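Batch manifest, entry 17 of 40.
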Amino acid sequence: MSPELLVNWTDHDSYLQKVLLLAKQTLRIFDEDLTRLGLEKPENALFLRRLLTSERQNTLTVVLRSANPFRRSSPRLMKLLADFPDTMKIYECAPQLASLSDSMVLADGSHALVRFHKDHVRSKAIIDNADECRTYILRFEEILKEGGTPISATTLGL
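Output type: structure tokens
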């Protein structure tokens, strides 16, 4: 299927749910703080839980530019992180990457929702097109290789 350009939030959010539903093995997300994606909504958190419970080897990897909103306002996602610490990983990206402004949701290497700038809706939706997704998967892997701070669902203390 050819990529589709999205120019309104309704289409963006509809394709986000579609990509989440299509994820059968891996889901990779790079975003400012997950606020705009709305993964904390009950239905989206349910899609993520379904992915993580359907097969033991399924994975969810999230890289955030700013983890503070996630820590403060994401109880459903924190619960998922606590329930699936081996298959769900969340990182705050390395400081040198904090100026990046795009957002990516990548499912199984064949589906993607890519927002070109965090403050604008203009996005590309890719469904069933591994060739078109390859560039974004490589970009995600490069971002992940830069390192960052792992986010834990538990607070460590003395």
